[in-house]
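Repro:
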Amino acid sequence: MSIHYFQIATGFSTGIAGLILASGIASAEPMHGIAMYGDPVLPPDFEHLPYADPDAPTGGRIVTGEVGSFDSLNPHILKGSVPWQLRFLAYESLMGRNYDEPFTLYCLLCESIEVGPNREWAEFTLRAEAAFSDGTPVTVEDVMWSYETLGTVGHPRYHSTWGKVGSMEQTGERSVRFTFNVEDRELALIIGMRPILQKAQWEGKDFAESGLDTIPVATAEYVIDDFEAGRFVSLKRNPDYWGKDVNFMNGVGNLDEIRMEFFGDGTAQFEAFKAGIVNLNREFNAEKWENQYDFPAIDSGDVVKSIVPHERPSGITGFVMNTRRDAFKDWRVRDAMLHAFNFEYINETMTGSKQPRITSYFSNSILGMQDGPAEARVREFLEPYADALLPGALDGYALPVSDGSARNRANLRRAIELMEAAGWTVQDGQMKNAEGTPFTFEIVLASGATEEQSIIDIFVEALKRMGIEPVVTTIDSAQYKERESTFDFDMTYFRRGISLSPGNEQRLYWSCDAAETEGSRNYMGMCSPAAEAMIDRLLNSESRDDFLAAARALDRVLTTGRYVIPIYQWNISRLAHAKELKFPESLPIYGDWIGWQPDVWWWEE
């Protein structure tokens, strides 16, 4: 990694100017945005994002309820538990996403982006008016410090991209260029999405060890105004926000306050919503939405219910099996768990069968694996790895389906057969191996996760009928975060959202390197050459057809890997909120997603 601080002074000599032109620095065309494929939809002079209302009033507050606690305000490091919203609400990057396009970025802190002919480099020019919340300007030095710090001592999610930057150099008073050391068309976009922090604030401080002692200074329209450890965080709209006249921010950041209240469990959170302490609640349980939203505030019209559709992939939600542990190394054991998990009965019990199941990681979207055998380009991409693929990847696969009864006899018989094939048989009422060692494993859950606990209770009863008695451990949020980060579990709850533009983040989710990196999102510990090859194809596809085939092929590898027991998906969002909280009629294709709520909501008496 080489880092150059090349300051361009005013009053070029003819010789220096000629060298710059010859080097190609001035030869690229500055752009207001960049798309993964083709050109950005919005023109350079666009007035606002298509799902933002530039005439929205300002004022009011939104108060959300969160289950758990927090002990840090720095979302950019591995240490500590942080309110997840801070990463997106309290910081800005060089570019921002338009959530009405699958993967297109527009300039935010930068005024332009330039790229090489093959996107082998990307150069950004900062807006002259860009400033931190304390009024100091954002400089190239701040940008370069942020990238190097995050890429080396920041959260592991930043390290992979930084490792692909061959050099970073200042090319002008407000310009910085990143040159990449690998072929990866997405890097020109990903590099524009890192949070920019103020270098001066961290002089003499240990960035990686910070917690509640330092409130990071950033550039966003909201600043942390008040907090109480583990209880609440309040962000206030900055009246001196630098970007209020930037088209990307027109109609964004309308609320005066965004407040997060923390509760010990989901029941306490819901009661706080009913009492008016919280004024917005996302409901993930369809049965509860139908039958438990009948309290006085609903009846009086003070709280309204809104349904928000979307077109994004389901992602994966369920219970992940850690293949680093002996219990789940064998795919047949994992398959047995899938058969023992009686989804149809659980879904009836939990939601009145109103919630559809996740059928694959990319289901509910055009990126999802299709029924039946792999065909055409999908098969072509997968066949070189045929010997390493698990059953179903090429020939077709679907999750086990029960008869809906509590007994689930047929699937339990199949589960016992799979366990026997893996070397486990029922002996004296217990599932044991040839040495007589009982089969067991630990399921780790966070305290307050009442719905997950209820699902696991049903699952455990099914396992007992197979002679398996897992240990269920419930721990507080700080302990849970620590055990998650170090992969100290056999099975745990798992949720991973996936966008319509999957790219480099897939390496953090599913790669071999991530499997060995603490703090990564590869909870299952999978290491699949086929998955890595499909991710490479995603990143380097030059046509939409190849991109779709690569995504569908990756979906087959992940789903047939049998790493996660999927539960229900949310192909709509159910939001109950104070009647004064409004949102635009025009919805982004991502629906209720990061960058929509509360970004473009407003308060109207």
